[in-house]
Write a structure and sequence with these properties.
Shape: globular
Helix content: 25-40%
Strand content: 15-25%
Largest sheet: 5 strands, antiparallel
Number of helices: 9
Structural class: alpha+beta
Distance between the termini: 51 Å
Oligomer: single chain
Strand order of the largest sheet: 1-2-9-4-7
Order of helices and strands: HHHHEEEEEEEEEEHHHHH
Number of strands: 10
Radius of gyration: 27 Å
Length: 332
């Protein structure tokens, strides 16, 4: 446990897998032996034969006359322990990772310059830090309620992004305001690049997500309650109120979390998925497919808007701006 606690502390400072493997081996050679030596049971004493030596020198072990206790079957070999440490290092370094860390205090998004130069990068280019002002770090975009009643699904979403909050660039964060009309629904969707925490500010909302074992986790939220949607899991929000609207504030741990509405991804693609694929996948006939496609294709603008608000960097923003579906920085 001592070695694992130290490993956890160090892995919070290092993201590189190689660095974490190095430290795992370091624990195996220098930290673990003193606590597994014959005299390690003595209080406040370490066996001097296992004291760490400089890394550049060869390892020498001094023979001691202390009797060596017979190892018990429950004592794990050092090799198993160090392999376990390496496995944990791979998991921490490869799975629990958000956006890359910024290399400067801030990177104000240079939307005009990047668009003029037709520059495409993983994120948005920065302006000269000397030109930064307080206005780059503040926005009122989330203060304005969206018009949820005019939308087919009955919800409106407004997000902070590098358009309305340029100082957010490279910070690995997105905040969203979700307005849901009575009995409105934010349909099943997923964010492939972010986890999400939703906090209910008004109304009564049923939320839920589905894991990869097809288990459904649902909860009715009251004002002040929060719920987390794990990264990449399909989830939904449904307003249970019959006469009152609901307001949800969401935070996502990515500047560009991405969004796929499940129904739109299956039945409203361009070009469409072959009917044979949909018939087998959903166990429906051609008439069912045509009926669903007619309804969803009429909402295709809604799918673009929702995706554009959450996929808020260059590709989606340009496409939606040209289509005229949404004003930049405004809600749906």
């Amino acid at each position: 446990m001592y070695a694992l606690k130290l490993l956890y502390s160090i892995t919070t400072l290092f993201n590189s897998k190689l660095n974490m493997i190095f430290f795992s081996l370091f624990f195996y050679m220098y930290i673990i032996p003193p606590f597994s030596s014959p005299n390690s049971h003595l209080p406040n004493k370490l066996n001097s034969s296992y004291l760490p030596l400089p890394l550049h020198s060869k390892l020498h072990f001094t023979m001691t006359t202390a009797p060596t206790p017979t190892p018990t079957p429950t004592s794990p070999p050092h090799l198993i322990l160090v392999l376990s440490c390496i496995a944990v290092a791979f998991l921490w370094g490869g799975l629990v990772k958000a956006d890359p860390e910024p290399l400067q205090d801030y990177c104000i998004a240079d939307r005009k310059g990047s668009e003029k130069e037709n520059l495409f990068i993983n994120g948005v280019a920065c302006i000269n830090p000397e030109l930064a002002t307080v206005s780059h770090f503040t926005t009122s975009a989330l203060s304005k309620p969206g018009n949820a009643t005019a939308k087919p699904f009955g919800f409106s979403i407004t997000v902070t992004n590098s358009v309305n909050l340029p100082g957010l660039n490279t910070m690995g964060l997105t905040m969203g305001r979700v307005d849901i009309k009575p009995n409105g629904l934010v349909p099943l969707h997923s964010h492939p690049r972010a986890s999400e925490v939703a906090t209910l500010l008004k109304g009564s909302v049923l939320v839920g997500f589905i894991d990869t074992s097809n288990r459904l986790f649902t909860q009715q939220l009251r004002v002040g309650d929060s719920f987390v949607f794990p990264k990449g899991m399909m989830h939904f929000l449904y307003n249970l109120e019959r006469s009152g609207s609901a307001l949800v504030l969401s935070g996502l741990n990515s500047q560009n979390p991405g969004t796929q509405i499940t129904s739109m991804a299956a039945f409203a693609t361009k070009p469409p998925i072959p009917d044979e694929v949909l018939q087998i996948a959903f166990q429906i006939n051609g008439q069912d497919i045509a009926r669903i496609q007619r309804k969803l294709r009429g909402m295709n603008g809604v799918g673009y808007i929702f995706a554009s608000e959450m996929n808020n960097e260059w590709g989606w923003t340009r496409q939606v701006a040209k289509s005229g579906f949404v004003n930049r920085g405004e809600g749906m």
